Automatic annotation (TrEMBL):
<feature type="domain" description="Cas12f1-like TNB">
    <location>
        <begin position="305"/>
        <end position="370"/>
    </location>
</feature>
<dbReference type="InterPro" id="IPR001959">
    <property type="entry name" value="Transposase"/>
</dbReference>
<dbReference type="GO" id="GO:0046872">
    <property type="term" value="F:metal ion binding"/>
</dbReference>
<dbReference type="Pfam" id="PF01385">
    <property type="entry name" value="OrfB_IS605"/>
</dbReference>
<dbReference type="Pfam" id="PF07282">
    <property type="entry name" value="Cas12f1-like_TNB"/>
</dbReference>
<keyword id="KW-0815">Transposition</keyword>
<keyword id="KW-0479">Metal-binding</keyword>
<protein>
    <recommendedName>
        <fullName>Transposase</fullName>
    </recommendedName>
</protein>
<keyword id="KW-0233">DNA recombination</keyword>
<keyword id="KW-0238">DNA-binding</keyword>
<feature type="domain" description="Probable transposase IS891/IS1136/IS1341">
    <location>
        <begin position="181"/>
        <end position="288"/>
    </location>
</feature>
<dbReference type="GO" id="GO:0003677">
    <property type="term" value="F:DNA binding"/>
</dbReference>
<dbReference type="GO" id="GO:0006310">
    <property type="term" value="P:DNA recombination"/>
</dbReference>
<dbReference type="InterPro" id="IPR021027">
    <property type="entry name" value="Transposase_put_HTH"/>
</dbReference>
<keyword id="KW-0862">Zinc</keyword>
<dbReference type="InterPro" id="IPR010095">
    <property type="entry name" value="Cas12f1-like_TNB"/>
</dbReference>
<comment type="similarity">
    <text>In the C-terminal section; belongs to the transposase 35 family.</text>
</comment>
Length: 418
């Protein structure tokens, strides 16, 4: 089974928002209490608690402590699950040791099958803007109005997550379990595409096409830099600082939404034409090392790379096509033609010039061809021509794809330049 998330914007009264905030604080406290209990247990008995023990402990704490009773019982259990999973990731060497959580970092509550109800479905809007609204009741919190901009299999929902974003917006996320598409083995895939992800150019394909950061995205990034400067001039934790901080958070979310939208469109474009997608395999270690030295602006890109990869993978897997990650080591310095390494290549060089065989090609295009070669595909003999992908909405995808409209988040409206 694989889990799929459907995220919808949620609106509620000020009172409900307050209740939600209180519950998030309480859930955070419960999380930290469990963490301390686990530490004590380990110091005294040199053992760790199982998932069920942690769940039971969460329920016991809830019974004994009035404060924890504001949480719905399954939500309290889920706090235990969250801690358990954080600890497992640490045991598996995938994450740092779980630490005490800070209240302002604890932003979501999860309901499982019980404790929530959707009702009062109605259609709103005309024509293209037609969508549904529904009322969600979360036990012990209250009512939310959801804007349901795409269909989702309500009967297969396994968890409902309510999340308060730093901008103050609230989203509700439905997790749906879907049977995994079986890997296809027998039929030999026909055509493959290598994709090099970059900063100046978002993506360069081995067929010569490339995708630049679209203008609205660039504008939003500029605005983020402006807002960051403004924030730095405000007095820390003053009212104006808090206001500026929220404005910045809104802009970040706007950029995130723009990107997601773009990523899904690119995913559809590629997966419709190609059977195999070859990407560089960024290992976690590499990402961490990059993170240390890079500026804030770059880090913003780092996180979007992993999202772009996830979206592309998702689009390919959905169509039962293949995604091949290949080692990224030196991929931009290797000559696609002779395999020699251009040691002198710097980040500023936009053109790759091979010191061994004299081959000249656009830097990113060379890198995407190297990736393709590493995955065992033979790239075309004739040199491909470098050309931009036209702005994605004009590709006719909108008309063609219920699928695409479903994938693209439609909650950007009204969020611009917030
Ligand atoms: Zn060469």
């Amino acid at each position: 089974m694989r889990v799929r998330a459907y995220r919808f914007r949620a609106y509620c009264s000020k009172t409900t928002t307050r209740v939600l905030k209180t519950q998030l604080e309480v859930a955070c406290k419960l999380y930290n209490t469990l963490l301390h209990a686990e530490q004590e247990e380990y110091e005294e008995n040199k053992r760790t608690m199982s998932r069920n023990e942690l769940r039971q402990l969460a329920l016991d704490l809830r019974k004994q402590n009035k404060e924890f009773q504001v949480l719905y019982s399954q939500v309290a259990q889920q706090v235990a699950d969250r801690f358990y999973e954080a600890r497992q990731r640490f045991f598996d060497g995938l994450a740092n040791k779980p630490r005490e959580k800070k209240p302002h970092r604890y932003l979501s509550l999860v309901y499982s099958q019980k404790g929530w109800k959707l009702s009062n479905w109605r259609e709103v809007g005309q024509g293209k803007n037609k969508k549904k609204k529904a009322r969600l009741y979360l036990s012990k919190i209250g009512f939310f109005t959801l804007v349901i901009h795409r269909e989702f299999p309500l009967e297969r929902v396994s968890q409902v997550c309510v999340k308060l974003y730093p901008s103050g917006r609230i989203y509700v996320i439905f997790l749906v379990e879907e049977p995994e598409a079986e890997e296809q083995q027998s039929e030999k895939p026909k055509n493959a595409v290598g994709v090099d992800l970059g900063i100046t150019r978002l993506a360069t394909l081995s067929d010569g096409r490339y995708l630049e950061n679209p203008r609205p995205l660039e504008r939003s990034l500029e605005r983020i830099r402006l807002l960051q400067r403004r924030l730095s001039r405000k007095k820390f934790l003053s009212n104006n600082w808090i206001k500026a901080k929220r404005r910045l958070a809104k802009q970040y979310e706007h950029v995130k939404n723009l990107r997601r939208d773009l990523f899904f469109k690119l995913g559809v474009l590629l997966s419709q034409k190609y059977d195999v997608l070859v990407l560089e395999d960024l290992n976690v270690q590499g990402l961490i090392q990059k993170g240390v030295t890079k500026t804030r602006r770059m880090r913003l890109y780092d996180s979007s790379f992993s999202e772009l990869r996830a979206v592309l993978e998702w689009e390919f897997r959905k169509r039962e096509k293949l995604v091949l990650p290949v080692p990224a080591y030196n991929s931009s310095r290797e000559c696609f033609l002779c395999g020699g390494i251009n040691k002198g290549l710097t980040l500023e060089d936009r053109v790759f010039l091979c010191p061994h065989c004299g081959f000249i090609l656009d830097r990113d295009l060379n890198a995407s061809l190297v990736l393709l070669k590493r995955a065992g595909w033979v790239p075309p003999d004739a040199p491909v021509e470098l050309r931009p992908i036209p702005p994605l909405p004009s590709l006719g995808l909108r008309g063609q794809g219920v699928a695409m409209i479903q994938e693209a988040p439609a909650f950007r409206r009204g969020s611009s330049h917030g």
